Amino acid sequence: MIQYTFGLHHCRFLSGLISSLLAGLLLVLAGCVETKPKAAYRIGFSQCTGADLWRQTMLNDMKRALALHPEYTLLYKDAGNSTARQLRQIEQLAAEGIDLLIVSPNESAPITKAVDAVFKKGTPVIVLDRRITSTSYNTFISGDNVEIGRLAGRFVGSLLKGQGTVVEVTGLAGSSPAQERRQGFREQLARTPGVRVIRELDGQWERDTARHLAEREKQVLQQADVVFAHNEVMALGVQQVCKKYGLDRQIRFVGIDGLPGPVGGMQLVLDGILTATFLYPTGGEEAIEAAARILNGKAVPRETILKSFQIDASNVQALKAQSDRLYTQQRDIERQTRRIQQLTETYSSQRNRLYITLFSLVVVIVLGAWALYLVREKQAAYQQLAQQNDAIRQQKDQIEAVSRQARQATEEKLRFYSYISHEFNTPLSLILTPTEDLLARRQIDPREVKASLLLVRKNAYRLLRLVDQMLDLRKADAGKLQLNARPEDLVAFVQDIVQDFGQKAARQRIDLRLISSEPKQLLWFDRDKLDKVLFNLLSNAFKYTPRGGFIHVRLEKQAETVLVQVQDNGEGMTADEQTHIFDLFYTGGNRFTLGNGLGLALSREFVELHQGELTVQSEKGRGTTFTLLLPLGSAHLDPTDLEPAPAQQPGLPVEEEWAQAETGVTEAGARKSGTLLLVEDHDELRQYLVSRLADRFEVLAESTAEQGWERILETIPDLIISDIMLSGQTAQAMNGLQLTQRIKNDFRTSTIPVILLTAKGQMEDRIEGTRAGADAYISKPFQMAYLLETINTTLINREKWQQRYTGDYLAKTENRQEKKFLNELTALIEQKLTDTSFGVEQLSREMGLSRVQLYRKTQTLLGKNVADYFAEIRLKKARALLTETSKPIAEIAFETGFSSPAYFTTFFKQHTHQTPSEYRKSPSINA
Ligand code: FRU
């Protein structure tokens, strides 16, 4: 079965699927792309046979015509020359649902019934080429078979010139062309009686049948002049048989159809096989055109009879050329049709692809939009999360800040209390220590008693002042400070206070002056409070002004205020110190004392009670100026501030300097048992200690760790006593712990014992002190006897060490420089003892001397050369380790700087006449 498909029908299913997928959206797209199809029709074509060339030509003619109607589907059925089969096929076509039937019946009568049935059902029918016996058709299309018969008869008559014999080979007897051609032929021959049909062969339209009959009737053929066959294939079949028997030259062959192509009738005429043939048009093209008219409701003629003509030697060439052209055109058309079909299919598949692409695009866009939406959603969620995080972080930061502040405040308070106790400890020490000292003595010099009592009284007053300040501070803190202002002469008041510091200024060679623009200045002020402020400012100035400096107090009347300035040319402050100087708990530097920290905070409170201002200007190294601005009149004061105050207690006395000089306070002639260096920043305590220790030791004293360190290097004292908390000159100043560390880490000083003296009694400080290398630790307030005892014990231990390692060379020499040299030399050797590569060369380099200088100096001081001294120290250490420890000899050898135990043994025996193990058992005195 051949099925021709044109247009979009093939992809109907697919487009249906896509259309449903694309739904509404793609309907719009499809509407844009697809043109409205013409009404599609199914044409059934029942062909009696498809085997021969004429029928193939008919089908080609139809195809050509169908190319103009792509909307038509041709359902083609080939009955293969079988009438029975054709009947079945017509029924099948009808059952499949066709819109029109074209039928070319194998035999007229038998097929008529089937065609009638189709036609009666209302299906239009076109009968092609062969007739049916009824009129059940819309149109009959065919060549003029009777006329062809006549034309053939006329031709044969003239060919035989009215005299001759003919063998007629007929088509299928039941088919109308065979009947009509015979009829026309006979009619015509009747006109030429000399021409006779000597035999009629029933070729049934088929070559083989004709050939078969020709074989059988070859005798008859021998007598024939012409063979007239109803079609060209039968003519050829007979010719081939005749040729076989050599009859082909005497017989002329005539056929019907006039087919084109290389094996068609025209070629046979050209080749001289046929003498003539007659065109029998297929009507294929006409049948399709008629079908189109019928299907489109147009009228068609009842019969269409197509013209025929004779083809012989006279016209065959022209006709052949024409038909060849047509044949080629036909091929071209077929090729183009195929191409169009391919293109249509390509177009269709591309369109499908386009649909799929568009669909995919739509899907991608939708998915993309969805993804975008999700991303946006996610971003929004992230943003929200980030905002929440930020908020949480901010809250956390706030909480942290608050807790940091709280921690800081707590730390500051703790530090404040620690300093407060330190501040209380020092005057308490200065009360308790001389008191204990006096009580412990049997005989007391009355002058000493007086000096001690003066010290006790002064420190008791200091305590009183501290307590007083603390109470004021508490009141200020609680907002309960009360101003008791009265109008008084400020100049006289300031003058009094300045005078109180006169003696102190004279002692320290400080130029103290009051410079006033007014001889007298009335001002409303609280005498008690302003006294504290000025006392505090002046104490402060004295504290930081060096000997020979100046402290100028300026008093100046301005428009609505009085200015009081306390200016000094002392140490000055850094910008940072200035910003914190009035802070109550400020401990940024080491300078915090109640004298400034607490005092200045309170002073500002007092001044602000007067609605005044207290400010500071200072420059490091150049001095400080405190400026006090107090408003004139009483309008700025609250009536409650103006109450007359109760009688004032007399002001506390200005602290007197401890009368004695710091150093060199010695009782002439007394035997001093060593040099002590005291590092203490509290002037009175330092002076007191110097005075109390000077009768037993040579005492050197310094107030800062830096100065102390210089003094240590210079003098190499036998013992160092240092306070832990040292104020120093700068914020980065060393404290006692750092000083101890430095002493212990330097080979020149590492052997000097250090006693740490401090008010801080906590365990951590002791641990820190011990870690720094301190030899003893004494808490303030301390008893003098205990301090002395500690000093003695420490010195004795030191002496033992010296004797153990260095002999008593150090003890023997009194010269400080010599002592220093020996001390350094011994400490260095001791330190490097385990280093076997350390010899005299390195020793002299580290001592900063040439080899020769070192030899000479050692020889003079010790009476032996440096190598011997080196050996002596090694031996002493070895002896000590042998007797005092159970360390193996090999280890002792290593610890005393010998490269091998054997060398150690030899060396030891050389010097002691005993092996190390013998010495360990019974140490000989000689050794
Ligand atoms: C082909 C054929 C032709 C002839 C026609 C008549 O089948 O035999 O040769 O002209 O049929 O119907």
UniProtKB/TrEMBL annotation:
Protein species of origin: Spirosoma sordidisoli
Record-listed 4-aspartylphosphate modification sites: 723
Presence of the UniProt keyword Protein biosynthesis in the record: no
Residue spans crossing the bilayer: 13-33, 354-375
Source organism phylogeny: Bacteria, Pseudomonadati, Bacteroidota, Cytophagia, Cytophagales
Descriptive protein name: histidine kinase
Catalytic activity of the protein: ATP + protein L-histidine = ADP + protein N-phospho-L-histidine
Histidine kinase domain boundaries: 419-634
CDD domains: HATPase (cd00075), HisKA (cd00082), PBP1_sensor_kinase-like (cd06308), REC_OmpR (cd17574)
Pfam families attached to this UniProt entry: HATPase_c, HisKA, HTH_18, Peripla_BP_4, Response_reg
